[in-house]
Amino acid sequence: MNEPPRLGDLVFTPEEVQKRVKEVGRCISGDYVGKKPVLVVILRGAVYFAVDLTRELSIPFDIDFMSLSPFRPGLQRVEIEMDVDIPLAGKDVLIIEDIIDTGLTVNFLVRTLEKRFPRGIRVCSFLSCPARRIAEVHVHYFCFEIPDVYVVGYGLDFQGYFRNLTGVYTLYDPTGRSTQILKAMGKGGKR
Amino acid sequence: MGDFSIITISREVESLGDEIALRLAKKLAFEIIDREGWVALLREWNTELPVEPPLEEKEQEEWMVTVRTFLREKAEKRGFILLGRGGQRILEGLDSAFHILVVAPIEIRIQRIAEKYNQDRATASRILAEQDMQRERFLMRNFGIDWKNPLYYNLVLNTSFYHIEEAYTLIIEAMRRATNKVPSVPVKQRSLFEEKNFLKERVFFSHPSEEDFARILDFYGIRWLYEPRTFPLVWDEEGNVVEAFAPDFYLPDFDLFIELTTQKQKLTWKKNKKVRRLKELYPDVKIKIIYARDYEHIVRKFGGRK
To answer: Using one digit for the tens of pLDDT, what is the confidence trace for B273-287?
Structure first.
């Protein structure tokens, strides 16, 4: 049996996470004054973020969930495994993601939801990793930008591990590269 | 001359395509529609219609049908020659349209540019590379086609063998003979995705990681072309290309080239150097290198997270 994956360095403490979620929540509330956006939460990673974020919103909102088929050999195209029930035509849609790195998933989501004629679509992600971007996507709200390291926690998992951690950590990187990158930005070390 | 009221001319830079078009237009009393004419024509007809096709697949199909209908009706009043603008794709399979590709060897085209702009050979070579690239990018981005594929054309003319007058005579004769020879199975209007798949059937990836990457792009409906363009990077004193670079993928929706490497990062200095040089020479070209660790991350992400 394979050894379970190991945690690496601490990237954001639970306190840092909560502080930023609160700030982003306030920002969204300000931008959507007088509106009632539909929050489309992308399962499963974004659930933790969505729950905390919605507690910080001072505006009314609807919430719904979407799930996409993960990439796997043999499956030709991404499929919507679970779709939103709320009709989106004429609505202000806010997509809630856990992380946007390559941008491939959210680019697909935006293209898909645009075809349902919403009034507008914005994207909110807990983390954004622009260094890994392939598909162009405008991330309107994010809590943290991260460098090119693999992170887990606060909804982000690796093979089912670490999703329920309240802070954000790197996955253990035996080369030491992740640690070096984090050190350069004054992060990491303690756990 | 026959029943063709539309002639599209796609031409390599300095291949004499414009001169041939002028000669034809004069003889046939056809109107010439070049880039400026195209913009003016579409704006005058419908101010809300974009002058270039939208990138979204369904909108693009609608745009193609609208523009095609408009051009067909226009040709019923007076014949015209459409220079470039993706005419071979927009009017593909139309009975009244005759499609011509005009080419010439690179040596001859460099010589023509050197004389036209009074430049040395090396400078002329760079000017040509830049102009060729612009043309290729326009067609790739807007129509997703390999525009030098001869199957798009009724006639391909190499002007290293013919003067303008001879080219004119050949075209007239070719149109006369082609009239009423409509293929028994009409050419299908291929959508961009079909075009991509059409090309993909012929793709031989040089590394399995490239094939996997293409699958991931397909999975998310991101259009791609494999090694569609080679960028000259270094020329010798006589203007011959001595070093070039062909990025692995081009994503027309993002106007982005992707180079994939599975080498360890410390072994990628050669590739990095080429990309730096490419950015210096072609500052408008967007290119991204996906290193081994990025690629591993992508594979891990799409296979790992749920």
So the answer is: 889 999 888 888 889
From chain B, the residues in CB contact with A71 under 8 A are: 216, 219, 302-303
Q: How many CB atoms lie within 10 A of CB B44?
A: 8
Q: Give yes or no: residues B174 and B210 share one domain.
A: no
Tell me what pLDDT residue A191 has: 55
> Are both B165 and B296 inside the same structural domain?
no
Residue range A81-105: average pLDDT?
A: 94
Closest residue in chain B to residue A102, using alpha carbons only = B298
3-state secondary structure (DSSP) of residue B42: helix
Q: What is the domain-level CATH number for residue B211?
A: 3.40.960
The predicted-structure confidence for B18-56, as pLDDT tens digits, reads as follows 999 998 888 888 999 998 899 888 888 888 888 888 877
CA atoms within 13 A on the CB side of B103: 12
A170, part of any domain: no
Say if residue A46's pLDDT is above 80: yes
B59 and B174 both lie in a single domain: yes
Do B97 and B44 reside in the same domain of the chain?
Answer: yes
Question: What's the pLDDT score for residue B210?
Answer: 86
Which of B128, B161, B178 is the last residue before a domain boundary? B178
CB within 8 Å: B218 and A76? yes
Residues B37 and B160 in one domain: yes
Residues of A acting as catalytic residues: 101
Range of the domain at B218: 203-304
What is the model's pLDDT at position B302? 64
Contact A46, A97 (CB under 8 A): yes
More confident residue, A94 or B64: A94
H-state helical runs in B78-163: 87-90, 106-117, 121-143
Contact B303 A72 (CB under 8 A): yes
β-strand pairing of A92-100 with A80-82: unpaired
Mean pLDDT score, A17-29: 97
Three-state DSSP at B149 gives coil
